[in-house]
Amino acid sequence: MVSQPPVMDEAQTSARSADGGGEQPAAPRRARTPLRQILHELRWRLILPVGLITGLLWTVLIGQALLTATPNTVLQLVAGLLPVTAGILLGRRIQQHVGWHAALLGLITTLAALLGLGGLALLVGPQPALVMLMMLAVLTLMPFPAFGMITSASGEARRRQLREELARRGGRLERPGKVRSLDDLRSLSLPQLGGYVSELFRRHDFKLHDYRFEKDRLDLRFTYEDEPWLVRVTTAEKVKPGLAVELSQRMKEEGVRKGVVITSMDFQESATRWAKDKPIVLIDGATLLSMDEKLA
Question: What contacts 112, CB < 8 A, 6 or more positions away?
């Protein structure tokens, strides 16, 4: 057991050397996707029917709301929400060429509405209100479906990225609640202990960059004063030297010079002896709690 907090260790000072002294070549630009390929990859079976139905339905709703003797405010509200709602629902299913899909959805919706208004003009004759509705269709149906789709697609992309990141990490850190005693600390699950450790190290001016759950342990990757640290967390009792040995091997593979093994329980004496002359700090539950109490 090492009672000294890891922030007391001396930080590494590294010098970077430049190669050749000349300017580095610029990274090659990403080739643009050909227009023909984009048009082929667009989901026409989605945007065409959705755009047509939205435009025609908007025409019916807004016509009923404004062209009758007593305007219906409910229908006006539904007609106003319809274009954005269509874009939001469709945006959840679009993963590529979002801008193209959004622009075409707005265009198709507008053309469908103008077509519907033109048919209505043939039935009832030209009226000033229809001209106003045509102008309203161009002003509202071009941007609003596109706005709804872009907003929805962006949100769905972020949620998808979070799900993939969570799957890669094998889990997520959890808030442990208030830890007042050693018994509270030892009752934490591994995700809760990881959250407790990450917050404690953050208060010691460490920056968390990544983490990954592996079986019954958790590896946290920090930097402190621009130096990388690898912190291994476990809830195991009487931790053997093997956990620190594995961490030492990983540190050598990744070129990390500072490591910490943390358990909410305690270490075997053999683990303490092994780490005595290694660049790895062992922190048991009592030491971890004392680090927290010093910052309280």
Answer: 51, 52, 53, 54, 55, 56, 59
Euclidean distance between CA atoms 8 and 204, whole angstroms: 10
What's the pLDDT at 292? 84
Which among 245, 177, 168 is positioned nearest to 213, based on CA atoms? 168
Tens digit of pLDDT for each residue in 67-76?
665 667 888 8
**Closest residue by Cα to residue 258 from 3, 4, 6:** 6
Which two tokens mark 173? 């850190």
AA letter at 3: S
pTM across the whole model:
0.63
33 token code pair: 């996707």
> HSE of 3 in the Cβ direction (CA atoms, 13 Å)?
3
**Partners of 223 in the β-ladder:** 207, 228
Under a CB-based contact definition with an 8 Å cutoff, are residues 263 and 235 in contact? yes
Q: What domains can be seen in the chain, in order of their start residue? A: 36-167 (no CATH), 173-295 (3.40.1350.10)
How does pLDDT run across 248-258, given as a tens digit for each residue? 999 999 999 99
- Measured CA to CA, the distance from residue 83 to residue 246 in angstroms comes to 57
| Residue type for position 149 | M
**Sign of the CA dihedral 54, 56, 61, 65?**
positive
Going along the chain, which residue ranges are E strands? 207-214, 217-224, 227-234, 258-263, 280-283
* Residue in 238, 278, 273, 242 with CA at minimum distance from that of residue 260: 278
Q: Which residue, among 121, 113, 119, 118, has the nearest Cα to 138 in the 3D structure?
A: 113
Asked whether 196 and 211 are in contact (CB, 8 A), the reply is no
